[in-house]
Design goal:
Blueprint (H helix, E strand, L loop, with lengths): L12 H4 L12 H13 L4 E5 L6 H13 L7 E5 L6 H13 L9 E6 L6 H13 L4 E7 L7 H4 L2 E5 L5 H15 L2 E2 L1 H11 L3 H12 L4 E2 L1 H7 L5 H12 L3 H15 L3 H14 L7 H19 L4 H16 L1
Parallel strand pairs: 1-4, 1-5, 2-3, 3-4, 6-7
Helix pairs in contact: 2-3, 4-5, 7-8, 7-9, 8-9, 8-10, 11-12, 11-13, 11-15, 12-15, 13-14, 13-15, 14-15
Length: 327
Amino acid sequence: MEANYYSYSYEPWVEKYRPKTLDDIIGQTEIVDNLKAYVQSKNMPHLLFAGPPGVGKTTAFFALAHSLYGDDYKHNILDLNASDERGIEVVRGKIKDFARSAPISDVPFKLIFLDESDALTPEAQQALRRTMEMYSGNCRFILSCNWSSKIVEPIQSRCAVFRFKPLTNEEIAQMVKRIAKAEGLEIEKAATDALIDVSGGDMRKVINILQSISMMNKKITEESVYKTASAAKPKEINLIIETALNGDFKTARQMLINLMTEGGLSGEDIILQIHKNIIEHNHPNLNDEKRVQIVDRIGEYNFRMVEGANERIQLEALLAYLAMVGK
């Protein structure tokens, strides 16, 4: 069945290809099945959506709202972003004002979506807890967060918690194929693999990269994906690591400098790719003990970068450490 999408000419593709109904959502099968059951019974508890960015939390909310209320769903939902409105006043103000009125549909409750709710202050979360209790008769709250541990326990205990997983390679490839067909794009197999590699299971990132490249060229190549994503090709990172592990620090250092200057990559982007390579690739001269030591050192250098240390010096220090470990 062909998916239904919101389709305005000048929308970002993230919105253009956002699934409109629960049936259109790719991945998160168990969660979608539960949401369909709520729609069927027209009854549900408060919900907590937890998971990394770009895996469908906001999409699931809007698809649920559309399935419950139909095309007129906007009159029955309140969509807030807690990272913009962090204080206790938004809980006492906007949410209470919306919660006081009755729903405009045959569904006996309205929906309040609080995105990035882990950004709410503890005081605001306590106020939200009381508001949830007071208006549970005609409102259901759906909280979305990256880290459920940042949500206070009294709120978690009042919600059914759904944990969203990063999307699989097959699910991302399915969406890439769907967009390519709709937009008339020619996508190389290597480019699809590159999109999967840079995404980390984040569908939003994949769609944004595709739209950015398509503005210049309808042919999507591996080269254009890595360039647009500001990421190095895995084989380039692997070659730098292998060169350092073989004791040739000088050559590995020059390769790193070329990658940073010609590719315009940040130190943090590179160190994350080095971490991924060390974890996933089988380097012949690395046993488990050495791998653990390297990952520990990567964490130290990454922390220094975040704290403001010079990126190039920290990466060169990491290469020097790899050269010592390799010997």
